[in-house]
Design brief:
This protein has 211 residues and is mainly beta. 0% of the residues lie in helices and 85% in strands.
Length: 211
């Protein structure tokens, strides 16, 4: 069982197109994306010679992806609020491939994929741009791909193994963000969907005990 959690707050100033004024207007924007993923895996370790091995695994994943955006134009004492949240559950398979250098050192390349089915909820309250206060939900299927590339060092202890892990991780959920807005000129509703992706360096520590 493993769990990923990511929570980030970002404040900035951006030029956003204002349909009422027909031009770009400076805004103060606060964005708060969140991500949680829990994987339950069952695997089989297979040795391919003295130095190479692969762990094949399958299981399930639960994921929660949330975006909150607060925007305030510099010329109005009001603000807009947009929130999108996806909660999904589904099967997951993957393979962890490693090459052992000896003396506890190894390098690896891991990959996995999942298909999640769940609910998309969105809230749209944009009083200064299109005057819309809307919310809704739908059932969605979201494919997910992930990959890791890195190295490990394992220290053998009396009651188990302690492993230091460092590398690069990439995760992508397809069409995981959902929102709606209204085109002011004709009142037509526009649906927006986009991917949710994370990538960057990571470091971890794992202890595997003997039972």
């Amino acid at each position: 069982v493993n769990w990923y959690h990511w929570d980030n707050d970002e404040d900035g100033h951006y030029n956003i197109y204002d349909f009422a004024l027909h031009g770009n207007v400076p805004h103060s924007v606060t964005m708060n994306p969140k991500w949680d993923a829990v994987n339950v895996e069952f695997g089989q370790h297979v040795d391919f010679g003295e130095f190479k091995n692969i762990r094949f695994h399958g299981g399930v994943q639960y994921a929660r992806i949330e975006h909150e955006v607060h925007g305030t134009p510099w010329y109005l004492p009001s603000h807009g609020y947009v929130k999108s949240e996806f909660n999904g559950f589904g099967p997951r398979v993957g393979a962890d491939m490693s090459y052992d250098w000896g003396n506890g050192f190894a390098m690896y390349a891991n990959g996995a994929t999942a298909i999640l089915v769940g609910d998309h909820d969105f809230h749209h309250n944009n009083v200064f741009l299109d005057g819309v206060n809307a919310h809704g939900s739908k059932t969605s299927m979201v494919p997910e791909l992930e990959a890791k590339l890195g190295a490990t060092y394992t220290y053998a202890m009396a009651q188990g193994d302690l492993t230091l892990d460092a590398g690069w991780m990439w995760v992508n959920y397809f069409n995981a963000n959902h929102n709606a807005s209204v085109w002011v000129a004709n009142g037509m509703q526009v649906i927006h969907e986009s991917d949710f992706a994370l990538h960057g360096p990571f470091i971890g520590l794992k202890w595997v005990g003997n039972v």
